[in-house]
Fold these 2 entries.
Entry 1:
Amino acid sequence: MNGRTKLELMWIGKDQEPRLEPRILLEDPDLSYHADFRVSENDIFDNRLIFGDNLLALKALEQEFTGKIKCIYIDPPYNTGNAFEHYDDGIEHSLWLSLIQARLKIIHKLLSVDGSLWISIDDDESHYLKIVCDEIFGRNNFISSIIWQKKYSPSNDAKFFSDVHDYILVYAKNKMSFKLNLLPRTEEQDKRYKNPDNDPRGPWKPSDLSVKTPNPRDIYPITTPSGRIVMPPESRSWVVSKEKFEELVKDNRIWFGKDGNNVPSVKRFLNEVQEGVVPKTLWLRDEVGDNQEAKKEIKAFNKDDVFTTPKPERLIQRILQIATKEGDIVLDSFAGSGTTGAVAHKMGRHWIMIELGEHCHTHIIPRMKKVIDGTDQGGISKAVNWQGGGGFRYYRLAPSLLEKDKFGNWVISKEYNSTMLAEAMCKHKGFTYSPDDTFYWKQGKSTETDYIYTTTQLITREIADQIQEQMAEDETLLICCKAFTVNPQDYPQITFEKIPTSILKRCEFGRDDYSLSIAQIPNKEKVEQVDLFGEENGQ
């Protein structure tokens, strides 16, 4: 490092990254839901709702969606120390950082080169979270920290300050490629444009003709129509040269007031301004809603079980307006009550939601059914004229591919049939699962000529010879089987591997929960001290 110091956030267990098993996803058609007919040509039916541990689910998406997600919004547990009904929101600090770090690393892979990550967070962990994001995304890809007014009424029982805002951290996958969309102009903004002189070019508003950074060349007297001579304010100059000013006067673009006696200003016409507005970093509840508004939205589909701090649809709409366009893919891996999916659906975006809690079934599915049926007219529905349509597929994470038998040996899980096994091995070995209609041994491929075949039967010379005869000269094949009796050297185009031996050390099997609990914090013997900032001088 040439003697330079690297500043890094350190905590207990940071270097103990999970060895995740790349699970396959199993659709449950009974819980998938689609509209009975197309409402419009833009209806989207291939959205995904995944029930299961969100870290394993992110890993399951990695192969198919790496570099394809345009916008990822997450609202992770804030680690406030409070006992939330739907989340364990009191995870020990080091554990919370490990939880976030593991997920952010996969999220970074999933984002497209022009994609962005948006994270809701509060004061308890926001500063630590930013440092973790800096390490994974790079400080140069930090876009902004947005302040969202989440409530209006003060908390009179607050010990210190009454907390009325949250943050939204925004990171780009690549800042040079990320383009921020302008927000639509509001009626309030357009009302500022008037037409007191009946200019045929339409409404306009006056703009200051002077500029802060003075240019001596542009300091000159101007005579108003009333005969008054005016100069630019002290320490300022006019924004245009004298020649340009005279051109603007001839074009009726200078306003001297109704009596022709005011300091001149430039007329900015509504039909000439940019179509949108540059977003600000302060989002008030009047613009994007608050927790109270969000609770009312949830009551529309589950009045008996309302989240403590839900996010309003208008807040997610603002994010998707800035970060995406129609047809883009949006992901939320802490789906909660399903607000992200509901808003993305109404805005014509593809969506993927992941949720482990039972509210996946008690909140998200009922909500999305109402959205798809068009009966949900709350939230942003009226603003976007939502009429329903589209659908989603419901997936569960497959069980672990390997399990231990009564002797403690790892074996293929009895819950796997031949199709599931073939697809799972494709993921483990980096192949795309795409069974061939002609050749049974072409179950997946990594290139146009490299294939994989998985079977639980014994591979004999007779079987190997039969496959080799069907292979083209430039084709190669990986055979994954329980056992084989052939001499691999006799088949230069074929590689033979035994399962489960060939994958046993690649990842951690038999674990379904990475939500992390206090009991999983590493012993102090493993990490002798905890430094918030560790320094490495590299000398």
Entry 2:
Amino acid sequence: MKNISLFSIVFLFVQSAVFGQGKYEQKFEQLGTTLPTPNTYRTGSGAPGSEYWQQKADYEINVEINDETQVLTGSEKITYFNNSPDVLEYLWVQLDQNVRSKDSNTALSQTSSLPANNTIPGRFLQKTVNDTDYDGGFKIAAVKNNNGQGLSYTINKTMMRIDLNKPMKTGDSFTFSIDWSYNINDRMLVGGRGGYEYFPKDGNYSYTIAQWYPRMAVYDDVNGWQNKQFLGSGEFALTFGDFKVNITVPSDHIVASTGSLQNPEQVLTATEQKRLKEARTSFDKPVLIVTMAEAKKKEKTRAKTKSTWTFHAENVRDFAFASSRKYIWDAQAVDINGKKPLAMSFYPKEGNPLWEEESTKAVVNTLITYSKYTIDYPYPVAISVHAASIGMEYPMICFNFGRPNEKGKYTDKVKHGMIGVIIHEVGHNFFPMIINSDERQWTWMDEGLNTFVQYRTEQEQYENFPSKRGPARNIVPYMKGDKSFIRPIMTNSEQILQFGNNAYAKPATALSILRETVMGPELFDYAFKEYAKRWAFKHPTPADLFRTMEDASAVDLDWFWKGWFYGTDHVDVTLDDVKWFKIKNEKRSLENKISDAKITNSGGKQGAQNKDFSNGFEEIALTDMDPRYYGEFKNRVDDNAIRQRYADKNFYELTFKNTGGLVTPLIIEWTFSDGSKEIDKIPAEIWRKNENEIKKVFLKDKEVTNVVLDPNLETADTNVENNTFPRAASPSKFDQFKKKSGK
């Protein structure tokens, strides 16, 4: 047994006395086997491994919309590349439209009830019992190989297995075709991410078409085939590839789409072509390519002819488009470090004047800010399409709400809501369209990360923007709610209970706290950008994010991921007690025997909890160091110099209790007798030896009149009433917090 010096024994005794014997829940233990074992595909650093691989799927598609019957008909040729080390006996294809088929598991697995007052709108009653005349789902007409021979296939709800006559080995490719059609859904009646909106005043439709073609499922090193059924909440895991798409619509329609338009001279007027060319060099404001007057004129006619718009897109995971004769169209160029994508908006007159004023500007602001925090935007266009009561994203194009009233008037709430949703949906180009996480499994990896950068965009590009998700104070009502209705962030999309709070707000807030309070902007921004660079156009998992953030910053964050992402604890730290000490001064004690009755050590109740500083300070007697404490050391400290150094200093012993369970940094604001203030920031690791109660002593030159924990509300502490000393002191910022959080 090794010898332990007397000094070490004393230190251990003091440490035990200070930290106590509180319950130890291993909040600072490493995630260890909670994360998957690193391998040659995904390294322990969070980077893709030397043998990382992913599949590829290229599409050639012809699609037509019948504007009279609202039926979409399509045919596609898919070439699938097996880059995996595995032999594939079959392929899985996603049939997402089947979520609305008669035998869909979505409606069958949803719970339902009738209102207590026995009063319900007819439309809601129809949805409650799933009674609708809508005939949804894909109508598969043919599945053939490249030689035109029929392939054996099995449809299981929203998934279709195609059986291969010959197994695909590593490096093989396989080309096959699918013919299909489906009835486009009325989003007002049926709902859905894609569909159409009908405008009864002019008898026109706006089609926002998504999940419209059979799409290859992902096969990867994590899950094999990601063929988890689509029930409606968990979105999509998709394979990158190149697209060539021909879209046939009435010739008076304007089409907005993923990709680059290949035949403008065939589908645009000479004036529209000229304006589009002007937009490519307009960096200060949008250029109207189709004006409101021109769109209004087309609303009154119906073309008898058709046009086919051709779009190409490279290295995208999906494809969506919108079509209507009602669309106004504007565009503006954006300079992203020499790349010059077009920011564009398409909207009916019902969106004006708000959309003409704000939509493309929001697209521009999004591309600039997201490129700063992730990678430079790589695609040729970024499009915002106006659609009622929706926010939904696809590569290069998204569908967004925000509509003035009939007179064209709108409130700040409507304006900010529209700007926020455009930033969010355009931002999805980065998460998950480029940094391609599995939405079917982990909603937060795209929604949460995206909401975080959305918050950064709102704050950096707009003055006093009322961001709803991101600020720590806004998550408090959710965090302190009934835990039986809260699940960890690391929960599958279909099992989440409070979708917006769990998948959007909480992870966005967690990342904001990680950036501002735990890591600091410099370390966080570098690591977050490194994650984006490593996993752009690849398939990251949560472990890849967690590991990269630590690898690129040298900050151990396992405690943070465990608390914020794997648990449901909340932050509630109580500033339980504050004691004031000074070094004992013999002269002062002799001369002030009577007046020193205020000193706790002399006239107060030592050890009793203080309510304020009115009892004055306790005295500490500094003794000479016992020689035994030096152990084998021969040199000695100057005890008198230490007494002199601290003669007029103030020592404050603070006691903190962690009643919420979630460990957190401590931000302490001191107010001194001269009115000045000072902030101390203590890392969360202070809780590593006792996760329930800790004490810490602070040295201050000046006397303190007030102590506030988390003064700027940056840790999401759910109870600020116990964050001040004296308790009577309640800074105005806390009153503002209580008002905002409805306390």
